[in-house]
Amino acid sequence: MIRRLVTALVAFACLALPAEAHRLKLFAQVTGDTIAGYGFYIGGGRPEGADLVVTTPEGKEVSQLKTGEDGGFSFRPPTPGRYRLTLSGGDGHFASIDISTDGTPAAPSPTTVTPAASAVPVDLDARIAQAVDAAVARQIRPLLKAYDAADGRVRFNDLVGGLGWIIGLAGLWAWFRSRRSGHGS
Q1: Of 23, 25, 22, 21, whose CA–CA distance to 37 is shortest?
Q2: Closest CA to 73 of 93, 57, 89, 59
Q3: pTM for the whole thing?
Q4: What's the CA dihedral at 8, 14, 16, 19 to 10 degrees?
Q5: Spatial CA neighbour of 100 closest among 109, 110, 88
Q6: Which of 57, 96, 115, 135 is most solvent-facing, going by the fewest CB within 10 Å?
Q7: Which element (helix H / strand E) includes 60?
Q8: Are 46 and 39 in contact (CB under 8 A)?
Q9: Could you say which of 3.30.160.40, 1.20.120.790, 2.60.40.10, 2.60.120.200 is the CATH number of the domain covering 24-107+121-152?
Q10: Residue 64 CA to chain centroid, in angstroms?
Q11: Which residues lie closer than 8 Å to 5 by C-beta, 6 or more apart?
Q12: What is the Cα Rg of the chain in Å?
């Protein structure tokens, strides 16, 4: 009886691991007027030649791209604004990200704040904002990559939670089996 239970637990554990190992993630960043990034699978690997669809928040398709050998892509949108990138890695693996190229939040906020008029000419404001955006993007790029990679890893509490599910299901199975065998005698 114990041997069957252990065998069932090992079989369930083997079946549970590959699903987490193939989850698809998408990393993208705006640098200047270009959106660039890459897709990656949890557990390693990048989707080579995967389809990337760029749409507006309203759902209008702007472009279709393919990822390179390293799972990377680069795209220059026709106008500044908000975009949704959806990556299809095949076999039902999808990842999406909302991104903005004009400084507005990627997801629309419920309230819009209009900045007060500035005494500095608009052209100079735009150039300063662009220079600051480029400098910040260059500095935080390694942090964003590390965060995305860490977010994609299987954590200890994920493993313990999975084992809890397996043990719980095995316990339910044993309980139902004992109830059935108790009624039959």
Answers
A1: 25
A2: 89
A3: 0.52
A4: -150
A5: 109
A6: 115
A7: none
A8: yes
A9: 2.60.40.10
A10: 19
A11: 170, 174
A12: 24
